[in-house]
Amino acid sequence: NITDWQHRYQKATLTICLGLIIWALAGVFTSSFNVTSYWGVGLGVVFLWLFSLGLFVRQFGLKKGALGLLVILGVVTFFLIFNQYRGWPFGLKTFHDILGWKLSWGISWPIPVFWSFMTAAALLINQPKQVTPDPKKLFSWAFDSSVMVLMISFIIEPILANTSAVSWSMPGAVLGVPFSSFIGWFIVSFVASSLFVFLIKPPMEQKNRLTLIKRLIVVEFVEFIRFARHAFVADQNIFHFGRFIGFGFVLLEQKKDPAAG
Question: CA distances (Å), 152 to each of 143, 158, 181, in order?
């Protein structure tokens, strides 16, 4: 259940950030980018990020929600910094002073905050009804969220390029934006989403773990039979035999554990 302070927090942050974004956009339609854009966009995305923090805490708890959003912000920031030095995954680009002051690596500070918010929003929109440890469902959650961020980048990146907030060393065919930028945001969002999903996923039940181990034992037993049939490959024999013995010890440990039975 949502408490009263959560209601007030979410309403206040959403109202403030929308007001700041409208204030910033006013500079676009009146006299191009000016001081309203310089401060309004940055402060607006900060309050959007705080709004998403409130939603994450509500959905996933204080510890996992806050830590997960910080992980997303860290991943986005890391890739932006890496791109400044290596030109990957977005391609070489220059951030200008329109959106506010720059970090030490030449990145306008609202950029990582905004894209971490977009990644978080995509995760919330694509969140399954019940989060389970099923790898397929977790992968689908992260992948679908990354596709949504990819689609959003087709709107945001051309706007940044055509308002001179960002310039590219080699302009691309999509309204001046190279296609690598869109693929880059898919990659970054998928990495960040995958880490977040791994962080908040519930632990696998003991029964499911034992079933998985038994299946692995069967696979390794088949490998051992193959090992016996091909005794002339010495190095491969030792490798397969070692794996078989290792999984045998795992099975013995499971039998010793009363909870596993």
Answer: 14, 11, 12
As a whole number, the mean pLDDT across the chain is: 76
Q: What is the pLDDT confidence band of residue 165, given thresholds at 50, 70 and 90?
A: confident
Phi and psi at 174, nearest 5°, equal -90, 85
The residue to which tokens 């908040």 are assigned: 200
d(CA 15, CA 22): 11
DSSP state of 93: E
Q: Is the pLDDT assigned to residue 233 strictly greater than 70?
A: no
Q: What is this structure's pTM? A: 0.69
Task: Give 68-88 as a DSSP string.
Answer: HHHHHHHHHHHHHHHHHHH--
Residue of 168, 185, 234, 236 whose CA lies nearest to 75: 185
Alpha carbons 52 and 72: distance in angstroms, whole number: 12
Model confidence at 98, in pLDDT bands (50, 70, 90)?
Answer: confident
What is the rounded CA–CA span in Å between residue 94 and residue 167?
5
CB within 8 A of 60, min separation 6: which ones?
68, 200
Any idea which residue has 């890739």 for tokens?
Answer: 79
